[in-house]
């Protein structure tokens, strides 16, 4: 046997645990069973105590088997309650969780009586977690479970995916959904139970949920999500035990996982809060830019193709602006306008861009009026909201459709005429 | 022309930023039986929910007798879809009907004799007087629907919004409901009903709102419930409108 | 024990609304999530007096509720997962804070988890009562008062949140109010009974009462009673076996729930089984009668003994019981080893066969079902067709005196 220092053992153990719970947790979260881990963790207690009373030692394997048995009994109890009574799922989970745990507390007090003797320290660890007492054999057990769980997921990846996504469909395709579901639950139960002595009862529930929810921010694909979630779980385990010396280990690991979750929530690309705010900000800026161009186009329209000089005064009157100067600066930097002394003028590039925008706007207006029966005096505002988000392909389609209906001149001029009178917004 | 009971201006409603109703504009005069008709996903229920302040408007406004919805709560009766509540809930039929009077009572006051009388009268009215003490799970679908109607009656409102009251009820209940709606109209109430069965529209209603993501038409049945308008309503969804809505959903990450 | 009863009663009051709003797990979540609020309140004030503890718990509770909803609504985390994330993270923060600030002080986290009812009589006293008892009494009264004042609002918003909102009782406000009550209740119960027992007492008695009653008022009263009974039972058992009181109370509550599942008069397993047996017996009796009637009708000389009859309707002990019942009620009699209908039995059988053949006719004529498919459905339905439906059927079918197989429909 290779001899490992305690801190190495702890680190390897928590990393293994974090990784496994990330994987099985992904399925649990996607399946809408996030709290089942919580229930299993609590329900394991009476089994642990019974196993201890029977075997008289605190070997992880024996205790885990006891925990597994009572965990499965709990799942069976929930199933029975749901099947036979009008108690709803949430209450059923709560009832089973608390009753089992209560029974566990009772047994625990029996175990802790001096008369029964034996080493009882291991039991309290089940409540709050105590990776410090990890033995070589514990690490081996964790590794063994990890291998089995990962192998199972690898083997049944496709089946689990289809059951998670759409149970009815899976059933209609002839998959044994009940067994697949049970397999997922069993994996969850096993991981929960081997994790109990490390992070404790409640915080084990967090280990199931947090890495999976964190991974969800980073990807939309299950395969990637499993990997990322596994990574996050392992990282939380390692970092938590490293940084959290002197604090209860379970809490430290969970706080690390929460921190990772928070960071992902804020900074994940695409789904993170910051990224989404940024997109929102850019969109708003683009809308302002496009409003400027269209305003200038409409003000220049009578003199086109000449590009007249327009007093800023009339731009300000034309519609409401939040920060006209900044919008103007951006347009000038892109060489779309010339801007001086209270006057602006579209550059040739600006005229071209503005014409495109105005065309999109007016096509959309025509569409709304003709197809969606919206009154001409309403279309301008509606078109305003939408035109900025219309993809290019949609515009082409719109143009074709309108042309086919004969709503556009056969040979399309650059920009169709506005379907309503142009007037400044006041 | 009589008074306008219900009015919607420029209303756009979006779920998760995807617009489901575009720019609705309509007016319903007082004392009409109004059918709200359109294909699945046309936004019929959304129209009602928006009118009742249950979903947020992206733009526009709703007026009940010329005032905002908040000021006119007491004039409004609402019958949600039957599946929207938990029928295992430990209440009796009479309790449910009594709930109709809660709005008028306001905070803290408890229902008294007068309210009980209203509840019992409403129950009699829908022919469910004998069931007052039953738990609601023990009723048939049609009976559950009648209980909901009795509750709406107990609201003693001026304007009623009914969401698919005819869904899954027996023929007897259906005709009872229709009779009840006509009574309401006779006493000057306005009733808006989300309705699915095109066959019966002209028999049941005198006004109709045709919806398909936007307002197709709104007016008296004879003028509005025409083949041409129906074609427009059911003639497929507006693909471009759909795509545009999708584009908006994608490009507006937060709101 | 008194403390146990008051705590359980207080929990049961709010618990009813939790389970009806399908938010039981929110009770679990809050009972854990208030921990950091408690610790912060304790650290800031240095005392364990009631008011700061409540304030801390309410703030933590509201924060949890708010964060759970935000995660779910704006960041699209599934609702159960968002609850799990928030409460476990809050609890972890609490555990670390306990370690950081209260080491050496009297703030035993094990006590938070498991409770220590055993020590209540020896603790400090407020207003002449043990502190925990005093606290839980205050909370019980608070819950009771809120329930009385806002009874109809709570009821309506739990039953039909949309209608409540249209009537101006915002369902969201009621949600937060309930969460505040749960947080406060949790705290009061914490020291005495521990967080898991709080969850048990929030959910289990209320669920038990839900199985037993059909009216909200009764459900609330019952749940309080059940909570109290669980407290008493748990206390006795625990003293008898000299073990954890709070654990035993939970077990007692669980037992009461199990009993309710079994014996609830309307929704219990046993009553369903009995109902099923009764129904099977009815069907079997009908089958025996109808069979004997048909034999008579065919003027067959065939005679059936009891054993043969029982075998003909499917056998088993139920069949024998049904024949025995028929004999006792005077519908059939045994003559020279074979069974015969009495006049009374013939009358009953005639009605049955009439139902059966009318229904067959109805299926063929009105629903257009093929002839060889109608016997089975009619066989299933015949037991439920009473005189009234028979008349309706007869009227609907106008005249026909023969069923589709060409046999006479008896009158």
UniProtKB/TrEMBL annotation, chain A:
Gene3D superfamilies listed in its UniProt record: ABC transporter involved in vitamin B12 uptake, BtuC, Winged helix-like DNA-binding domain superfamily/Winged helix DNA-binding domain
Residues passing through the membrane, by range: 12-30, 61-85, 91-111, 139-157, 177-210, 222-241, 247-268
One Gene Ontology molecular-function label: protein dimerization activity
Chief location: membrane
Keywords from the named record: Cell membrane, Membrane, Transmembrane, Transmembrane helix, Transport
Gene Ontology BP term (one): transmembrane transport
Domain Iron dependent repressor metal binding and dimerisation: 347-402
InterPro entries according to UniProt: ABC_BtuC-like, ABC_TroCD, Fe_dep_repressor, Fe_dep_repressor_sf, WH-like_DNA-bd_sf
Membrane topology category: Multi-pass membrane protein
GO cellular-component term (any): ATP-binding cassette (ABC) transporter complex
Subcellular location: Cell membrane
Family, similarity comment: Belongs to the ABC-3 integral membrane protein family.
Protein name as it appears in the record: Manganese transport system membrane protein MntB
Gene expressing this chain: mntB_1
From TrEMBL, chain B:
Chain coiled-coil ranges: none
Top-level division of the source organism's lineage: Bacteria
UniProt keywords, alphabetically: ATP-binding, Hydrolase, Nucleotide-binding, Transport
Signal peptide: none
Alphabetical list of Pfam families matching this protein: ABC_tran
Molecular function terms, GO-annotated: ATP binding; ATP hydrolysis activity
Domain ABC transporter: 6-238
Family to which the UniProt record says this protein belongs: Belongs to the ABC transporter superfamily.
Protein name, as recorded: High-affinity zinc uptake system ATP-binding protein ZnuC
Organism from which the protein derives: Bythopirellula polymerisocia
Gene label: znuC
Automatic annotation (TrEMBL), chain C:
Entry-linked Gene3D superfamilies: ABC transporter involved in vitamin B12 uptake, BtuC, Winged helix-like DNA-binding domain superfamily/Winged helix DNA-binding domain
Keyword Cell membrane on entry: yes
GO molecular function, one term: protein dimerization activity
Key words of the record: Cell membrane, Membrane, Transmembrane, Transmembrane helix, Transport
CDD domains linked: TM_ABC_iron-siderophores_like (cd06550)
Keyword match Repressor: no
Pfam families: ABC-3, Fe_dep_repr_C
Membrane topology summary: Multi-pass membrane protein
GO biological process, alphabetically ordered: response to zinc ion; transmembrane transport
Residue spans crossing the bilayer: 29-46, 81-98, 133-151, 176-204, 216-239, 245-269
InterPro entries cross-referenced by the UniProt entry: ABC_BtuC-like (IPR037294), ABC_TroCD (IPR001626), Fe_dep_repressor (IPR001367), Fe_dep_repressor_sf (IPR036421), Iron_dep_repressor (IPR022689), WH-like_DNA-bd_sf (IPR036388)
GO CC terms: ATP-binding cassette (ABC) transporter complex
SUPFAM superfamilies listed in its UniProt record: ABC transporter involved in vitamin B12 uptake, BtuC, Iron-dependent repressor protein, dimerization domain
Subcellular location(s) of the protein: Cell membrane
Domain Iron dependent repressor metal binding and dimerisation stretches: 342-410
Source superkingdom: Bacteria
Family: Belongs to the ABC-3 integral membrane protein family.
Protein name listed in UniProt: Manganese transport system membrane protein MntB
Protein source organism: Bythopirellula polymerisocia
Gene: mntB_2
């Amino acid at each position: 046997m290779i001899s490992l220092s305690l801190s190495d053992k702890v680190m390897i153990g928590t990393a293994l645990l974090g990784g496994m719970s990330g994987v099985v947790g992904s399925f649990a979260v996607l399946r809408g069973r996030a709290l089942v881990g919580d229930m299993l963790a609590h329900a394991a207690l009476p089994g642990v105590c019974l196993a201890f009373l029977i075997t008289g030692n605190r070997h992880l394997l024996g205790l885990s088997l006891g925990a597994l048995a009572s965990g499965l009994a709990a799942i069976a109890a929930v199933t029975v309650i749901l099947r036979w009574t009008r108690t709803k799922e949430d209450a059923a989970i709560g009832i089973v969780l608390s009753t089992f745990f209560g029974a566990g507390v009772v047994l625990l007090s029996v175990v802790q009586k001096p008369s029964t003797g034996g080493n009882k320290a291991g039991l309290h660890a089940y409540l709050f977690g105590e990776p410090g007492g990890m033995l070589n054999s514990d690490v081996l057990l964790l590794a063994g479970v990890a291998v089995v769980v990962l192998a199972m997921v690898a083997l049944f990846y496709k089946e689990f995916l289809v059951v998670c996504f759409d149970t009815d469909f899976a059933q209609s395709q002839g998959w044994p959904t009940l067994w697949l579901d049970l397999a997922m639950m069993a994996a969850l139960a096993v991981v929960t139970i081997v994790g109990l002595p490390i992070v404790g009862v409640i915080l084990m529930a967090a280990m199931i949920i947090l890495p999976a929810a964190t991974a969800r921010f980073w990807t939309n694909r299950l395969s990637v999500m499993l990997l990322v979630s596994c990574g996050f779980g392992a990282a939380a385990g390692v970092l938590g035990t490293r940084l959290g010396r002197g604090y209860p280990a379970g809490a430290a690991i969970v706080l690390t996982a929460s921190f990772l979750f928070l960071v992902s929530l804020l900074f994940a690309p695409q789904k993170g809060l910051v990224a989404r705010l940024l997109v929102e900000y850019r969109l708003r800026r683009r809308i302002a830019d496009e409003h400027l161009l269209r305003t200038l186009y409409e003000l220049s329209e009578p003199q086109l193709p000449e590009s007249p000089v327009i007093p800023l005064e009339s731009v300000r009157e034309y519609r409401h602006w939040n920060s006209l100067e900044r919008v103007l600066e951006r347009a000038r930097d892109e060489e779309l306008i010339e801007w001086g002394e209270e006057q602006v003028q579209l550059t040739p590039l600006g005229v071209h861009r503005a014409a495109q925008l105005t065309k999109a706007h007016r096509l959309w207006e025509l569409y709304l009026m003709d197809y969606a029966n919206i009154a001409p005096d309403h279309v301008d505002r509606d078109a305003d909201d939408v035109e900025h988000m219309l993809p290019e392909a949609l515009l082409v389609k719109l143009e074709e459709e309108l042309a086919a209906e004969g709503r556009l001149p056969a040979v399309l001029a650059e920009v169709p005429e506005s379907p309503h009178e142009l007037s400044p917004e006041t | 022309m009589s008074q306008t009971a219900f009015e919607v201006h420029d209303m756009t409603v979006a779920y998760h930023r995807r617009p489901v109703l575009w720019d609705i504009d309509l007016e319903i005069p007082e004392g009409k039986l109004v059918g709200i008709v359109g294909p699945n996903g046309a936004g019929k229920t959304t129209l009602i929910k928006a009118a009742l302040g249950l979903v947020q408007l992206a733009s526009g406004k709703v007026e009940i007798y010329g005032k905002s919805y908040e000021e006119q709560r007491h004039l409004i009766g609402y019958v949600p879809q039957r599946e929207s509540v938990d029928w295992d809930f430990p209440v009796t039929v009479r309790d449910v009907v009594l709930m109709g009077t809660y709005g008028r009572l306001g905070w803290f006051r408890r229902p008294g004799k007068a309210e009980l009388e209203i509840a019992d009268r409403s129950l009699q009215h829908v022919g469910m007087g004998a069931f007052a003490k039953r738990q609601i799970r023990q009723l048939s679908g049609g009976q559950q629907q009648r209980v909901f109607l009795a509750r709406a009656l107990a609201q003693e409102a001026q304007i009623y919004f009914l969401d698919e009251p005819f869904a899954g009820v027996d023929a007897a209940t259906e005709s009872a409901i229709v009779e009840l709606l006509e009574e309401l109209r006779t006493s000057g109430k306005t009733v808006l009903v989300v309705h699915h069965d095109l066959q019966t529209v002209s028999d049941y209603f005198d006004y109709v709102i045709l919806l398909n993501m936007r307002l197709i038409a709104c007016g008296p049945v004879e003028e509005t419930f025409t083949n041409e308008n129906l074609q427009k309503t059911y003639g497929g969804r507006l693909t471009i409108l759909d795509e545009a809505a999708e584009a908006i959903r994608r490009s507006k990450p937060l709101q | 024990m008194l403390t146990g009863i008051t705590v359980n009663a207080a929990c049961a009051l709010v618990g009813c609304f939790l389970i009806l709003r399908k938010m039981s797990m929110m009770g679990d979540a809050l009972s854990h999530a208030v921990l950091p609020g408690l610790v912060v309140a304790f650290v800031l004030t240095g005392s364990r007096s009631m008011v700061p503890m409540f304030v801390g718990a309410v703030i933590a509770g509201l924060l949890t509720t708010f964060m759970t909803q935000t995660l779910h609504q704006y960041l699209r985390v599934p609702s159960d997962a968002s609850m799990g994330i928030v409460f476990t993270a809050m609890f972890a923060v609490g555990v670390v804070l306990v370690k950081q600030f209260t080491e050496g002080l009297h703030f035993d986290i094990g006590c938070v988890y498991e409770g220590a009812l055993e020590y209540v009589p020896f603790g400090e006293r407020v207003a002449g009562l043990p502190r925990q008892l005093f606290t839980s009494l205050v909370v019980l009264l608070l819950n009771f008062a809120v329930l009385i004042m806002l009874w109809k609002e709570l009821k309506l918003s739990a039953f039909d949140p949309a209608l409540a909102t249209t009537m101006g009782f915002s369902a969201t406000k009621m949600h937060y109010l309930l969460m505040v009550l749960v947080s406060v209740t949790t705290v009061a119960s914490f020291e005495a009974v521990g967080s898991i027992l709080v969850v048990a007492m929030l959910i289990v008695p209320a669920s038990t009462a839900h199985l037993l009653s059909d009216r909200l008022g009764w459900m609330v009263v019952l749940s309080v009673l059940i909570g109290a009974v669980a407290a008493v039972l748990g206390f006795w058992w625990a003293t008898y076996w000299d073990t954890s009181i709070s654990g035993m109370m939970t077990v007692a509550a669980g037992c009461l729930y199990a009993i309710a599942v079994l014996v609830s008069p309307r929704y219990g397993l046993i009553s369903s089984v009995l109902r099923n047996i009764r129904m099977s017996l009815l069907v079997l009796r009908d089958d025996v009668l109808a069979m004997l009637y048909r034999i008579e009708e065919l003027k067959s000389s065939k005679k059936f003994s009891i054993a043969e009859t029982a075998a003909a309707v499917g056998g088993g002990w139920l069949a024998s019981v049904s024949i025995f019942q028929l004999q006792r009620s005077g519908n059939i009699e045994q003559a020279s080893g074979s069974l015969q209908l009495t006049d009374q039995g013939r009358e009953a059988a005639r009605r049955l066969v009439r139902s059966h053949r009318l229904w067959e006719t109805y299926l063929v004529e009105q629903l257009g079902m093929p002839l060889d498919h109608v016997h089975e459905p009619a066989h299933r339905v015949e037991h439920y067709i009473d005189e009234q439906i028979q008349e309706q059927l007869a009227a609907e079918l106008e005249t026909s005196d023969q069923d589709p197989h060409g046999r006479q429909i008896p009158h």
